[in-house]
Amino acid sequence: MDAAAHAYFFGGAGREQTLAANEHAWCKDWLWPRVLATPARIDTSVTLLGRRCPTPWLAAPMAHLRLAHPQAELGLALASAAQGAGFVLSTHATVALEDVAAACRSETERGPLWFQLYPYGEREDWLRLAQRAARAGFEAIVLTVDAPVQQVPTRAREAGFTLPPAWPQPNLPAPPPRGTLEELLAQALHWDDVAWLRQRCPLPLILKGILHPADAERACAQSLCDALIVSNHGGRVLDGVPPTATALPAVSAAVRGRVPILVDSGLRYPTDVVQARALGAHAVLIGRPLLVALASGGAAAVAQLWRRWRDELAATLALLGAASLDDLPPLHTELQPMPAPNP
Amino acid sequence: MDAAAHAYFFGGAGREQTLAANEHAWCKDWLWPRVLATPARIDTSVTLLGRRCPTPWLAAPMAHLRLAHPQAELGLALASAAQGAGFVLSTHATVALEDVAAACRSETERGPLWFQLYPYGEREDWLRLAQRAARAGFEAIVLTVDAPVQQVPTRAREAGFTLPPAWPQPNLPAPPPRGTLEELLAQALHWDDVAWLRQRCPLPLILKGILHPADAERACAQSLCDALIVSNHGGRVLDGVPPTATALPAVSAAVRGRVPILVDSGLRYPTDVVQARALGAHAVLIGRPLLVALASGGAAAVAQLWRRWRDELAATLALLGAASLDDLPPLHTELQPMPAPNP
Amino acid sequence: MDAAAHAYFFGGAGREQTLAANEHAWCKDWLWPRVLATPARIDTSVTLLGRRCPTPWLAAPMAHLRLAHPQAELGLALASAAQGAGFVLSTHATVALEDVAAACRSETERGPLWFQLYPYGEREDWLRLAQRAARAGFEAIVLTVDAPVQQVPTRAREAGFTLPPAWPQPNLPAPPPRGTLEELLAQALHWDDVAWLRQRCPLPLILKGILHPADAERACAQSLCDALIVSNHGGRVLDGVPPTATALPAVSAAVRGRVPILVDSGLRYPTDVVQARALGAHAVLIGRPLLVALASGGAAAVAQLWRRWRDELAATLALLGAASLDDLPPLHTELQPMPAPNP
Amino acid sequence: MDAAAHAYFFGGAGREQTLAANEHAWCKDWLWPRVLATPARIDTSVTLLGRRCPTPWLAAPMAHLRLAHPQAELGLALASAAQGAGFVLSTHATVALEDVAAACRSETERGPLWFQLYPYGEREDWLRLAQRAARAGFEAIVLTVDAPVQQVPTRAREAGFTLPPAWPQPNLPAPPPRGTLEELLAQALHWDDVAWLRQRCPLPLILKGILHPADAERACAQSLCDALIVSNHGGRVLDGVPPTATALPAVSAAVRGRVPILVDSGLRYPTDVVQARALGAHAVLIGRPLLVALASGGAAAVAQLWRRWRDELAATLALLGAASLDDLPPLHTELQPMPAPNP
């Protein structure tokens, strides 16, 4: 991976304050282990959208993975399926969605296979792409709602990042919008667009990019989604927004169990997944750690990472005296809270 | 720019505690974005002294810009005017104020053009310079009140910074005072001097360098200014003074809307401007980021920076669901405050 | 010591947050010295399990010390005995326990000699090893309860750490378990195992690795130990668990004096021992500082470190106006607490 | 200055936590400047022990200055006297006290000349040395009470610091004690020693090294001193003790104006002196900044530093709207306190 691509994948917006806070915010409460009470069996599975998932995580949708490794999205999808992890294919993937779905089909213990949708073009374009994903075997549509304007991370801009010529993007619903900021804003998705798509979409609809509890409340009150993902886009869209670990409890309180909640941004270790669970998330999306693995060793390295995460999550649960994620005790904040990390 | 000039421009007083705190203090509250509610049009303009300004920022008065780039103040003024930003010319500019005003005149969408005044010499000298600025087309006088004694930043002193010989300073009201500290202090500006100038000045009078709310109260109660600028001189005059983000709400409470408030020192990203607005500022002055741009690429780089700032401010407003700065919601501190940054 | 061995000894689990917090957490309260009241004599001894110990510390059980220095556990034990420090021999030592005990026997001022037991194999295997230790002259069995699953520190894994072939481990009760995580968890120690061993063990039984006060309460209520050691295994087993300085007061409150409490993890200076005492520990175990000394100069360097620690502890007590650890005043938190260190 | 001498002068005890905290703790409250109210004249003088001092500072007693520069204590004393600063000569000076006093005598605007006494030998030895200092023209005896056991800083020990052979120490009351820690402790100074010396000493007696308010109370209640110095010996004696800025308000409250209070340790800028004044100190002692100057340029560099400090203190007072240190407003903590610096 060259320096500009690295800056593109690992950078964030503005002074990268949210990027940094995302990681630190997961260290919210100390985990108080229990001794001499190891459960005989540990179950790392969760249930999402009516289906058992062997692990509580999915690979987050990431664009342009071919910049990281020639196996690109195909390698990441296969390794995830083989290790019981879910996978979310990006609209900006460099591999056709049909090829990804076909490759994963034979893995019987695989996690969910979802398709992430950027609403380029007209409403009918989005619907056609969702139908195409459904036909291929995808199980849900993840509609990204937090990026009406997409920006390149500060450091990627300074590094002069651009996509190579003739870059393959076989899953676009329509060409991405171009033009002035005013023109881009005029095409931004609105609540009525979501309602329109929700009525017609052949798959469950998941909204990705909610931070404000009032938005979560609206999505639930109007039955506009089957699940939602608390995300700040990995700190890439707007700097200064709260880390997702900060927003998650507020969103969870607003949702009141009406839909399952997922979360991403800043999760780097299986212990972070335990923290996310304690704050209200049913499952998590993992991004940059997979990028590191993919870039360093392709699908094999990704599979090794997922396998280690599963073992480490099981070990963590065992050390906390919990047989499953549902069995986790509340984190013992009352014993002594951790000092708040500085931004 | 040589190392000594760099130390002069980017250094601060003492141990540079205020210099560092200035930047961190703008990260005061998390910005909570809203989704699916992008306004159709974004307006970045503000109204200052009865005039519409396309953007809420002005280039702060900075001395000796020729050290950074041969285009000096002329380049910075032109690029600012072209991009709808205001410009404040320093008494210590290396270009005659008439030349600056003439160059900006043709830009129809330009921001305010103000002249910053150091009160060297006698009262009549100040008045003559203000009249000269008025004749040239400047729209206000910015009287600096926080630097009765000027010091070179610690690191510039250690780097042996001095001005080159025969340095052009065509806008001085009189030669800068020289002598012992006692002699300098004896010439310091007082409240009665401001009152004298205010009565005679042909232009609106703006006081720059207020931190203490009692001073803001006095300036308003005695109608001594048309606007005031909360500033600690970029941390250059006295170390250990509060960052302006800390002083701003206290000043705003004291002013109670009687005059518009501007603020400078430490603003580095358009998101900081949103924070400043939320804390009570109507507009901001930007200094060192422009210096970096000017030094690296002259007027063209400054224009590019201003253009990006305008787009990023518009995008930020859009992501917060606000059509203009007046439309900003209160920052959602109650959802969860950021931990206080350390000095 | 090669880089992989260094990573093995000095690394921690996960992002090493607990590893780092362990050290910082001992700087809990300022020590307020008293003047002109130096006691005539300073006594650094403590009483543990009915026996006087010249110093309040023991060398913590550490595995594979031959990687650090050819004198290995024998050198560390001898130097500790010579300087009045206790010594805990690891199950994973590279020297036979009989040889260690024989070497230390002649030191009349030595501290306690304990044997640390990993419960590999069957219950009878553990008991046989405890009996063997008793016959050799060990004074207590330290049963490690916090590591049903052992992990290599993150950085050691990345450095490719493995044990050399034919590595001597003459004190294992049985071969360490191998297999899948599920198989390892199935062999984990439980409370009834401890009760079984406690009834038959010819030596006092000490539980090592308690953090949660409820576990301490259970161990005391059921009389399952003669002492307990608050430990997070030096941050090596599970990242995100509280530093021992945080857990210690909670455990101390739960134990209510029923058994003596020891603590390890992160103690680096004799002043930390004073802090540990003030938080409820009767004695401490020291690990990594001894490793540094052993690796740099073998037994001689260890003896020099212990000697300096004893002098510095005596000097610290003198400066605090205390003639012994029992004579320490409460730390004067009320005068002004230290700000909480960040994780 | 070689590396070992540098480590000796600039190091601290233990992990150097107090050494670091000393500096940060002076940044306690923001200084809120006032504008347009510059006093016509600034007076930096203070009154100490019935005598006017042109500046509120003295050079702290420092041992072995010949290691820093051949002019040693003589250079530091002369430069201080010439710039209106006080000077405290160390018992461990490398120049005879008579020579120092003679050299300073002609400076009419000099600050106080004090002699620091380490109580080596017998009571009569101390008294003889105090009488000798009085005869030479010293104005007070500074009795160090915080170092019954002297330790070399951690990093100096590691650097192998030792004094050169035949090192001149012409002011010792008796040879420094040698022997085991127990023997050193047996010779420690006690309250009755202070009372004995106080009754006979021909000069005012100042106690240096008080941190605990109870010790300050005892010294005042029994009239055992004419002034006291809040000090932690620059963080060199015991790590983990509070920074002097933390102890100072507690001591000030205990003293209730009965004797003047001085403070040292960690003051690095004239603004720190303003903070010290606001926390209850009448004057300060400056150490390491003078060492840097002496080592870099002898007496000339020291004089330049003192001159700049005097100008910067005057400028600071002017910017705060105060004509003298007595005229300082309370620091406006209520406006907004600074966040507590981390240790």
UniProtKB/TrEMBL annotation, chains A, B, C, D:
PROSITE patterns associated with the record: FMN_HYDROXY_ACID_DH_2
Official protein name in the record: 4-hydroxymandelate oxidase
CDD domains reported in the protein's UniProt record: alpha_hydroxyacid_oxid_FMN (cd02809)
EC number: 1.1.3.46
Residues at the catalytic site: 233 (proton acceptor)
Family: Belongs to the FMN-dependent alpha-hydroxy acid dehydrogenase family.
GO terms of molecular function: FMN binding; oxidoreductase activity
InterPro entries listed in its UniProt record: Aldolase_TIM (IPR013785), Alpha-hydoxy_acid_DH_FMN (IPR012133), FMN-dep_DH (IPR000262), FMN_HAD (IPR037396)
Keywords: Flavoprotein, FMN, Oxidoreductase
Signal peptide extent: none
Ligand binding (glyoxylate): 8, 118, 233
FMN hydroxy acid dehydrogenase domain boundaries: 1-338
Binding-site residues, FMN: 61-63, 90, 116, 144, 208, 231, 236, 264-268, 287-288
Cofactor(s) needed: FMN
Encoding gene, per UniProt annotation: hmo
Enzyme class at the top of the EC tree: oxidoreductase
